[in-house]
Design brief:
7 strands; hpI Integrase, Chain A; 253 residues
Length: 253
């Protein structure tokens, strides 16, 4: 699948969530990763509700929610084991990664770390573990195929998101786009480069800065817009004039 930026991630996740309120999206046969809004869905239909309130029980829905809320790499998500989920301390421990369907070590030493587990993600993980879609397996994997082995990211992408996005004409997006989306959204919400780098587990903050230095936070846009409005309306000149004409206090005792 093609690699892309946050605009395509929006198409994959946010746009898909919002549009589903008004209509049902047609997908290829067998793609039913979300529970239906009515009693019995037709075979080729899928519905996703806004704010993630649909019951995404099948592996793909839970996998996408993990990627979209943590910035985890797809291989790391597919390698998660039950023992990596610390519900008591609200942490997810990254210890392994999947390559071509085989368990291995993460990309770098810095990648082996613990990430915060948001409350809504914890709820989803517990629901998935309690559902019929969780497959107990000898490796203790959170996500396992019918043979009890890790999913292959490439095969998972080809069989699920690709046909799902192609049907309504939404641009294709790879799983890694979720990671970029998390980074740009955190920056847009005011998170520092250091915080974003820690969440993505980059080995050096300069990597994060090099990748996302072009992202302008919304807070910065709002501040500059407010400045321009004040300047254009003459508000700044009025404030400065009032400040100049105000009596100054003497600090001589």
């Amino acid at each position: 699948m093609e690699r892309c930026g946050w605009n395509h991630v929006s198409a994959l996740w946010i746009r898909l969530l919002r549009e589903s309120i008004e209509r049902r999206l047609s997908a290829v046969s067998g793609v039913t990763d979300c529970s239906p809004p009515s009693t019995q869905p037709r075979r080729n239909e899928i519905t996703i509700e806004v704010n993630g309130r649909s019951r995404l029980q099948k592996p793909l829905g839970t996998i996408c929610f993990i990627l979209g809320s943590t910035g985890m790499r797809i291989g790391e998500a597919l390698a998660l084991r039950i023992e990596d989920l610390d519900f008591q301390r609200k942490l997810i421990h990254i210890r392994h990664s999947v390559y071509a369907g085989m368990l291995g070590t993460p990309k770098s030493e810095a990648s082996m770390a613990s990430l915060p587990m948001p409350p809504n993600l914890a709820v989803r993980l517990k629901a998935f573990l309690a559902s019929k879609h969780y497959r107990p397996n000898s490796q203790g994997l959170l996500f396992a195929n019918r043979r009890g082995r890790p999913f292959s990211a490439n095969k998972l992408g080809e069989k699920k998101p690709r046909p799902l996005l192609s049907s309504p004409g939404i641009p294709l997006a790879g799983f890694h786009a979720f990671r970029h989306g998390v980074a740009t959204t955190l920056i847009d919400r005011g998170a520092s480069i250091t915080t974003v780098g820690a969440q993505l587990r980059h080995s050096d903050p300069r990597i994060t800065l090099g990748l996302y230095a072009h992202v302008v936070p919304q807070s910065q846009r709002d501040a500059v817009e407010g400045l321009a409005i004040a300047l254009g309306s003459g508000e700044l000149l009025t404030q400065q004039s009032n400040a100049d004409s105000a009596p100054r206090k003497s600090f001589v005792s």
